[in-house]
Design a protein that fits this description.
This protein has 320 residues and is of the alpha+beta class. Helices cover 48% and strands 12% of the residues. Strands 3, 5, 6, 7, 8 and 9 form a six-stranded mixed beta sheet that branches. Strands 1-10 form a two-stranded parallel sheet.
């Protein structure tokens, strides 16, 4: 009996041990399975993050591409805008060419004014020392008046009309070489030289001559169709009283200045009307200054000196 009990107990113990092993096996399998699931989830999560990162980079690249495309579009638009401003028709190209300014020494179309207006009185101020600079101006080598042929012909008509009214033309300046204009510019920069201030610019500071337009780097006179002139009374044999002197810098020189006498104002208007009758245009700052409206060289500036040799050389070239 005791032997049977002992065998039964050992059997129970064996069964119990088998059950424990089975239980431990089940528990170990679950933990391992759970671990694998966690790794899978982590791996999945990492993949998702990587995918999101890749997606973000893709979006960023697309955005940059979009920006580049926008920039390219803007550049193309600017290029198109610039190309639209370029001349396309023959008339537009011609207009651009006319606007281009050149400097030359060609004298082929210039003449002595006195050959066309023999009774004109010449007082070429820039050949003398009586001017706002106080010395002879560069480029004025003779006291003569040179103009384009078209200007000389128009002034001949002016002279003929004025002669019937008892007047002659008195010329202060005509063609002015670019070298003379440069002389003016250099003088204006020297603020210490004010020797002629009391005569020509007592109301204006020399430092303001550029800003107020009295001195510039170019002059219409250098195109050959502008003249500075006044009237000479053949009865009194005196210069007509215009209420102000030539080359005075100030409002007194404005053609419509009303601070002068009625007679002085009438004299200004007489000169103005006769000049305009024959194709000249005035300016608002100087009663003595007139330019041929249809000047032949509106965009060309000349630099040859004021002397007879300049014109003689051109005549010799024509003869040859």
């Amino acid at each position: 009996m005791e032997k049977k009990r002992s065998e039964t107990i050992w059997r129970l113990i064996a069964i119990f041990a088998i059950c424990l092993c089975a239980l431990f096996g089940v528990l170990y399998g679950r933990e391992k399975s759970a671990g694998r699931s966690s790794e899978v989830e982590q791996s999945t999560t990492s993949s998702v993050v990587e995918n999101e990162s890749v997606s973000t980079e893709t979006v960023s690249e697309e955005t940059q591409t979009s920006k580049v495309q926008e920039t390219t579009t803007e550049e193309e638009t600017e290029t198109e805008t610039e190309s639209e401003t370029e001349p396309e028709t023959v008339s537009e190209i011609t207009a651009v060419k006319k606007d281009q300014k050149t400097i030359t020494e060609d004298t082929s179309d210039f003449v002595l004014l006195t050959d066309y207006v023999p009774d004109a009185i010449l007082e070429i101020r820039y050949y003398s020392t009586y001017n706002f600079v106080g010395e002879r101006i560069d480029g004025y080598e003779e006291p003569i008046a040179i103009v384009t042929k078209e200007t000389a012909l128009a002034l001949a008509e002016v002279s003929e009309e004025l002669e019937g009214l008892g007047y002659r033309l008195k010329i202060y300046d005509a063609y002015r070489p670019q070298t003379a204009v440069t002389h003016f510019v250099n003088w204006a920069k020297d603020l210490q030289d004010t020797s002629m201030k009391e005569y020509f610019y007592p109301e204006v500071r020399k430092s303001e001559l550029f800003s107020r337009g009295y001195i510039a780097k170019r002059s219409g006179h250098s195109r050959g169709s502008t003249v500075d002139l006044t009237l000479f009374d053949m009865t009194t044999e005196k210069e007509v009283d215009m209420g102000g002197t030539f080359d005075y810098f100030g409002e007194l020189s404005h053609p419509d200045y009303m601070g002068i006498t009625k007679e002085q104002y009438a004299n200004r208007m007489l000169l103005r009307s006769v000049m305009m009758n024959h194709g000249f245009k005035p300016i608002a700052q100087e009663w003595w200054h007139f330019t041929l409206k249809d000047e032949p060289y509106p965009n060309t500036y000349f630099s040859f000196p004021v002397n007879s040799d300049s014109l003689e050389s051109a005549e010799m070239d024509d003869a040859a």
